[in-house]
């Protein structure tokens, strides 16, 4: 393998990643902006910057190594087949996981350490985001069930109350499962698709405009609120009963309006060409590319350190391995 092909692979690796998640859903675009505020990097920037810097460092190192063969400067070898051959000979020989034929094998080794870590993290993200997509689908089902309970011809307060409690329980199960994954150190830390999914569904529950035409200010007036510190929902049954006795039709209309909007939000998150599906497609593409070219990169730049993994990453990586075998 020659210098051009090796650097071509490294260059393609970071160029392969798009500039960020995208969506065609106007409802989610504002949420994406809010969820992304304060972030200085996106899906590709971190790897792109690291790879570009290390790649350039490796290029300069290789040029410097060739220049020491007696050429007037490090670029003279471009016109000298003999010098180029002597500078690139023995690249496949590794010692201690490092390619000692390079002028600066440590820089190349660190670049491969980045690749090793990215490969593991991308696989873990893929598995976890797939699970989140399934969780979004479950929440969509919960919204549909609530809407059905409020939309029957013989609707009664007890049925809506029971179904609303069931919805809150399902929502809290969703939060307990995925909220920590987007926190610092979590598998989906900094992943816009995951952050937007959690944000969208929370804002849907908090929406104060549901039931406005009947004098209500969203589910809060029916006893459903979300704790800002834990992000968990709670249901005040007494407050619901009071609202029901005061304005039965208004409660029914509010629940129907909320559940229809919630169901739509969940559906959009999993829709084709939207946050979750786009991110999964991007992850799948870069995972395949690294897998196809990793051996070539290692032969040129060294093995790199093994990927560092916390408990969340290990669990998600195990889930990915099962998915890959299926």
Could you characterize what this model shows?
There is one protein chain. With 326 residues, the chain is mostly helical. The protein is built from eleven helices and two strands. It has helices spanning 3-15, 26-36, 45-67, 81-88, 105-151, 157-178, 192-206, 237-246, 248-269, 275-301, 311-325, and strands at 224-226, 233-235. It has a two-stranded antiparallel sheet with strand order 1-2. Helix 3 (45-67) crosses helix 4 and helix 7 (192-206) runs antiparallel to helix 9 (248-269). The protein starts with a helix and ends with a helix. The relative contact order is 0.16.
Query: What percentage of amino acids are in beta strands?
Result: under 5%
**SS-based class:** mainly alpha
The helix fraction, in percent, is 55-70%
Indicate the multimeric state: single chain
Spatial sequence of strands, sheet with the most strands: 1-2
Count of separate DSSP helical elements: 11
Largest sheet data: 2 strands, antiparallel
Low-confidence stretches: 18-44, 61-92
- Average predicted local confidence, pLDDT: 80
Q: Which helices and strands occur, and which strands form pairs?
A:
Layout: H1 3-15, H2 26-36, H3 45-67, H4 81-88, H5 105-151, H6 157-178, H7 192-206, E1 224-226, E2 233-235, H8 237-246, H9 248-269, H10 275-301, H11 311-325
Antiparallel strand pairs: 1-2
């Amino acid at each position: 393998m020659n210098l051009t092909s090796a650097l071509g692979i490294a260059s393609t690796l970071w160029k392969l990643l798009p500039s960020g998640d995208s969506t065609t859903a106007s409802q989610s675009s504002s949420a994406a902006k809010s969820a992304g505020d304060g972030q200085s990097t996106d899906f590709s920037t971190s790897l792109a910057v690291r790879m570009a810097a290390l790649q350039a460092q490796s290029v300069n190192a290789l040029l410097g190594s060739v220049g020491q063969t007696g050429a007037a400067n490090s670029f003279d070898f471009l016109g000298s087949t003999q010098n180029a051959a002597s500078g690139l000979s023995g690249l496949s020989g590794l010692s201690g996981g490092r390619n000692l034929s390079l002028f600066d094998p440590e820089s190349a080794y660190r670049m491969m350490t980045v690749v090793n870590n990215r490969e593991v993290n991308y696989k873990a993200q893929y598995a976890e985001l797939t699970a989140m997509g399934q969780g979004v689908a479950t929440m969509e089902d919960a919204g549909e069930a609530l809407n059905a309970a409020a939309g029957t011809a013989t609707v009664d307060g007890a049925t809506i109350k029971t179904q609303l409690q069931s919805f809150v329980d399902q929502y809290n199960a969703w939060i307990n499962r995925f909220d920590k994954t987007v926190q610092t150190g979590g598998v989906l830390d900094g992943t816009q698709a995951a952050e937007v999914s959690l944000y969208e569904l929370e804002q849907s529950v908090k929406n104060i405009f549901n039931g406005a035409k009947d004098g209500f200010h969203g589910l809060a007036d029916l006893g459903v609120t979300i704790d800002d510190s834990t992000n968990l929902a709670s249901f005040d049954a007494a407050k619901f009963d009071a609202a029901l006795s005061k304005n039965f039709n208004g409660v029914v209309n509010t629940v129907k309006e909320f559940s229809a909007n919630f169901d739509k939000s969940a559906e959009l998150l999993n829709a084709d060409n939207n946050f979750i599906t786009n991110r999964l497609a991007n992850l799948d593409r870069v995972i395949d590319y690294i897998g196809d070219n990793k051996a070539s990169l290692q032969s040129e730049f060294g093995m790199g350190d093994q990927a560092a993994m916390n408990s969340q990453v290990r669990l998600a990586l195990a889930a990915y391995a099962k998915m890959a075998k299926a």
